[in-house]
């Protein structure tokens, strides 16, 4: 696994004066949510730039050969274009073989597990040996700097995971649930065919909570997302563990999507899992980069362990759709697990 | 009830909150406070409320009644 994060770092303290709230309240928000630093792309940088940078890094170090890539999945909410798929853009920029099966998947914070499931399915084909899964988003470009609800938590990143067949053939358990009736809880209202972007959709509006955002911007109903995570994620994880016949205590780490520290602490409390077994330190250093946060959580907390040994990990993603997903697997034997800066 | 009012007061960063107080009139009432109250009611009383439920509650006591009615279900 490799993550590519923009070199540009911004701090909460630098940005909090953009918000329409007293400084004391913004500092309180920082303390409760665990906001500190995050990584943001420069204007104009797209997910294919981060992905191509990361794949070249792997090619140059002999960690992956271009011709080995039989499948390329790009999981994103911020593609380079409406059309063509960003996976084809990346394929073209790197001259990957025509036999590489390229597919974009419209998923976000639950997208690491969703992408793994798709990669596993493709690997069922006999002549597919390696699948590259890319979880990438540049959501900072779609957030309003005057929206305290979402702006201070978003970060940009691309995570590249090489998925191969395991000789040991160990079983992996996973569950996914979706609820489209709640699709408006996390959305970018304008810019698609329903409401094309126009001068009107770019106008910043206060919808009554002192935050200013346009319809072109990412909207998040924070308390609805909180309730969604607290009520839906614990039973899903319990079901996955039950299917696998594994007790909660036997799981070494719960590697969850990283919305913010607060939500993860509350989730751990609800599941009666010690905080140390559910890392929550991605947002304070990098921001919430949607589907890339689980790989980043592995890199900054468990890199040595998953390279030299392994651990029983329960992954869990949750977000746009709404979608929630979990997967129980032995995570280990990784030939690389690092994070590099994109500049 | 008293324990609940103490918890609300702590979130609002005031010494005390009375039954009849309208939570929305406190200077600290914002989206962060709303989320903190929702999280407290979930963790300590096992009740999941929406932000709209908090906005509609006329007082601290009215919110407590709502919590009790949800708990009873």
Description:
Chain A is an alpha/beta fold and 343 residues long. Chain A has two domains: 2-164, Peroxisomal Thiolase, Chain A, domain 1 (3-Layer(aba) Sandwich), CATH 3.40.47.10; 173-332, Peroxisomal Thiolase, Chain A, domain 1. Chain A has helices at residues 12-15, 23-33, 47-60, 86-93, 111-123, 222-244, 261-271, 283-286, 293-308, and strands at 2-6, 9-11, 37-39, 71-75, 101-105, 130-137, 157-164, 173-178, 186-187, 205-206, 212-213, 219-220, 253-256, 310-319, 323-332, 338-342. In chain A, the strands form five sheets. In chain A, strands 5-4-6-7-1-16 form a six-stranded mixed beta sheet, with helices on both faces. In chain A, strands 8-15-14-13 form a four-stranded mixed beta sheet, sandwiched between helices. Chain A has a two-stranded antiparallel ribbon with strand order 2-3. The longest helix of chain A is centred in the last third of the chain and has 23 residues, at 222-244. Chain A starts with a strand and ends with a strand. Chain B has helices at residues 2-12, 31-45, 51-56, 60-72. The two termini of chain B are 19 Å apart. The A-B interface holds A 21, 25, 28-29, 32, 148-149, 209-211, 221-224, 226-227, 230-231, 262, 266, 269-270 and B 28, 30-32, 34-36, 38-39, 42-43, 48-51.
């Amino acid at each position: 696994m490799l993550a590519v994060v923009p070199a540009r770092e911004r701090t909460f303290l630098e940005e909090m004066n953009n918000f329409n709230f007293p400084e004391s309240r913004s500092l309180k928000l920082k303390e409760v949510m665990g906001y500190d630093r995050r990584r943001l792309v420069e204007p104009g940088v797209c997910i294919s730039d981060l992905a191509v940078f990361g794949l070249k890094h792997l090619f140059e170090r002999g960690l992956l050969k271009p011709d080995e890539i039989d499948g390329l999945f790009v999981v994103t909410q911020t593609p380079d274009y409406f059309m063509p798929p960003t996976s084809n853009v990346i394929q073209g920029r790197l001259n990957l073989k025509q036999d590489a099966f390229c597919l974009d998947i419209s998923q976000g914070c639950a997208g690491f597990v969703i992408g793994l499931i798709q990669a596993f399915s493709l690997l069922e084909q006999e002549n597919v040996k390696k699948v590259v899964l890319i979880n990438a988003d540049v959501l900072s470009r779609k957030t309003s700097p005057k929206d305290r609800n979402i702006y201070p938590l978003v970060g940009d990143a691309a995570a590249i995971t090489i998925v191969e067949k395991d000789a040991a053939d160990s079983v992996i358990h996973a569950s996914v649930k979706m609820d489209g009736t709640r699709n408006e809880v996390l959305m970018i209202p304008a810019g698609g065919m329903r409401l094309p972007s126009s001068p009107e959709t770019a106008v910043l509006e206060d919808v009554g909570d002192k935050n200013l955002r346009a319809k072109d911007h990412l909207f998040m109903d924070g308390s609805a997302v909180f309730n969604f995570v607290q009520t839906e994620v614990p039973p899903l994880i319990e079901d996955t563990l039950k299917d696998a016949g594994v007790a909660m205590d036997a799981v070494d780490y719960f590697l969850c999507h990283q919305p913010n520290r607060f939500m993860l602490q509350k989730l751990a409390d609800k599941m009666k899992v010690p905080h140390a077994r559910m890392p929550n330190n991605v947002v304070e250093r990098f921001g919430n980069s949607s589907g890339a946060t689980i790989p980043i959580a592995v890199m900054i907390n468990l890199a040595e362990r998953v390279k030299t040994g392994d651990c029983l990990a329960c992954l869990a993603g949750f977000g746009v759709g709404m979608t929630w997903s979990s997967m129980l697997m032995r995570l280990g034997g990784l030939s690389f697990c690092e994070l590099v800066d994109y500049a | 009830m008293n324990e609940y009012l103490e918890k609300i007061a702590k979130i609002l960063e005031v010494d005390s909150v009375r039954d009849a107080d309208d939570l929305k009139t406190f200077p600290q009432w914002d989206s962060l406070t709303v989320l903190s109250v929702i999280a407290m009611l979930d963790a300590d009383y096992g009740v999941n409320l929406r932000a709209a439920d908090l906005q509609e509650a006329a007082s601290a006591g009215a919110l407590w009644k709502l919590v009790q009615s949800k708990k009873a279900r």
